[in-house]
Write a structure and sequence with these properties.
Layout (H helix, E strand, L loop, with lengths): L17 H5 L8 H14 L2 H6 L16 E13 L6 E12 L8 E13 L2 E8 L1
Antiparallel strand pairs: 1-2, 2-3, 3-4
Length: 131
C-alpha cells in the first residue's frame, strides 16, 4: 500500500502522504490535512486512526467500519479557519463511495458534510459535523 497513490487523491504516494499520519510519524498541521487523512483511513479501514484523531469529548468508545463500503474519492468544497495559526476550523467535503462486490448494482453514492475540527495541545482532532 505504501507505494500506491494515496486515497485522499493528493497525487502523492500513500507512504509519503496520509501513510505518515496513519503510522504516527507526524500529525496533521491543518484541519484539511486531518480531513484528508481521515478519509484515507476510511478508505483503508483504519478504525484505530479514526478513533485516535477524534476529539476526546465526542469520540465514541469504539468504531465499526462497514466492510461493504469502498470509499474512492474526496472533494474538498470549502474551508473556514483550520490553518497553522488557528485552533478551530471547518471543512466542507463530498466523500464518494460504492457498495462493495456482492451487490449486483454496486450503487455509488456521496456523503456531503461540513466537519468541525479543533486543535488541542498542537494536534488537530475531528470534533463533529455541522448540520
Amino acid at each position: 500500500m505504501s507505494s500506491t497513490r494515496c486515497p485522499c487523491l493528493s497525487g502523492l504516494i500513500y507512504g509519503e502522504c496520509c501513510g505518515r499520519l496513519h503510522r504516527g510519524e507526524v500529525t496533521a498541521t491543518t484541519a484539511v490535512e486531518l480531513m484528508r487523512s481521515r478519509f484515507s483511513a476510511f478508505a483503508i479501514s483504519d478504525a484505530g486512526y479514526l478513533l485516535r484523531t477524534w476529539h476526546p469529548r465526542t469520540r465514541p468508545p469504539s468504531l465499526q467500519l462497514d466492510p461493504g463500503i469502498r470509499w474512492y474519492r474526496l472533494d474538498v468544497i470549502s474551508t473556514t479557519g483550520g490553518g497553522l495559526l488557528d485552533d478551530d476550523g471547518t471543512v466542507e467535503f463530498r466523500a464518494h463511495y460504492r457498495e462493495a462486490a456482492g451487490s449486483t448494482a454496486r450503487q455509488a453514492d456521496v456523503q456531503q458534510e461540513n466537519s468541525r475540527f479543533q486543535r488541542v495541545d498542537r494536534e488537530w482532532y475531528y470534533l463533529d459535523a455541522e448540520g
